[in-house]
UniProtKB/TrEMBL annotation:
It comes from the Bacteria. The keyword Disulfide bond does not apply. Residues 317-364 are annotated as: Disordered. Residues 333-343 have a biased composition (Basic and acidic residues). Transmembrane segments: none annotated. It holds the Pfam family CbiX. One of its GO terms (molecular function) is metal ion binding. The lineage of its organism: Bacteria, Pseudomonadati, Pseudomonadota, Gammaproteobacteria, Oceanospirillales. The keyword Nucleotide-binding does not apply. This is Sirohydrochlorin cobaltochelatase. Keywords: Lyase, Metal-binding. It comes from Marinomonas alcarazii.
Amino acid sequence: MSNREQAKKGIMICGHGSRDKDAEREFGLVAKGLKERFPDLPVEYGFLEFSAPNIHMGLNSLVNQGVEEIYAVPGMLFAATHAKNDIPSVLTTYEEKHPGLHITYGRELGLQDDMIDAFQARIYESLGLDPENPPENLYDTMLVVVGRGTSDTSANAEAAKLTRIVNENMGFGWADTVYSGVTYPSVGVGLEKLMKLGFKRIVVAPYFLFTGRLIKRIQGYVDKVAQENPAIEFIQTPYLNDHPRVIDAFQNRVEEIMQGELQTGEETLMNSFKRRLAAGEVDVHHHHAEFVDPQDDTQGLSASDVKHFTNVVLSEGHGHSSVLNPNGHSHSHGHDHSHDHGHSHGHSHAHSHSHDHSHGHSHGVYKHIGHPMGPRTMIGEGICCCFMSQFTDEILEEEKSKIDGDCTKTAFAHQ
């Protein structure tokens, strides 16, 4: 028997993290459910940012329990920046610092049948229907799936693919996808456009694992639109949470690692990360590995969000101070590096700055940041400052009427 086969095994679930304490607790429920599936193995979890335990803490706990081989799975629905870059970076760095430890990184949850079944079950439940005995169709109802929204095109496409699959499975009269994040169409504008189709019953189903700022923002948008359109029945589907089929999906990803299925077929997330890192294609923000306690449960922006945005405005010379509140600080982070934000709207900002591992949030640059149905529709409603920093002067000038001088204020959805 090889040393690897004799090594004590453990499971690590790697999440994003949230300023919402309820989201932390819900993530813990998934870990608890997975522990019930693997009673003989230690199961720990940790977050990239905002929350405790962070990923290092979870890994430390496994090592302290004598674990020498870790099966790590991303607690992510789709493979965007966090699953592709940030988590592999944390795991690789940790493994390098612990000789004798072996970490295998699995796949994102993706569009497994279990995930689709869980999502459909939540939708049926919100309609007061039995998922085990569904109607033949729901032709009188429109489905609006809310995806996370990211700068990663493939992740956005997966949300749209999910919508089509669920629509055909359940037989809605129409279905479409809106997004709560950096892409388009945004939730509010998307709903306004879709209401023109004339459906009197609209199901809004967020494809999210847990609660958090975005879920509450989505609920706020839907409530606002529903109040303005009393003739339409809006039904809000609960997020996935620890539905048994979600636990099944996590179990599947762990068993893929155990059975060696990641070594065949397409490139794994970890292999992709290492290849791109070696080629200089990955700009890793190591602050994701560090835990910063926000000290509060408010749904507004964290101090690190404010710090990051104000500095971007001032140090990159965007000239936004005429329309945004200049709080003024230096972008000093502890280790110098340069990177080009590569804005596709006609100018780029090659700059050098340093990062203090207390920075709490980052997003990839999105080339359609100025889309008329995208994040600009959320300016003035508490949109993340990391998005705000990507807007050109021209966009901010056009949207100036929405900006009262402070992008850090809480969105109406959270008031």
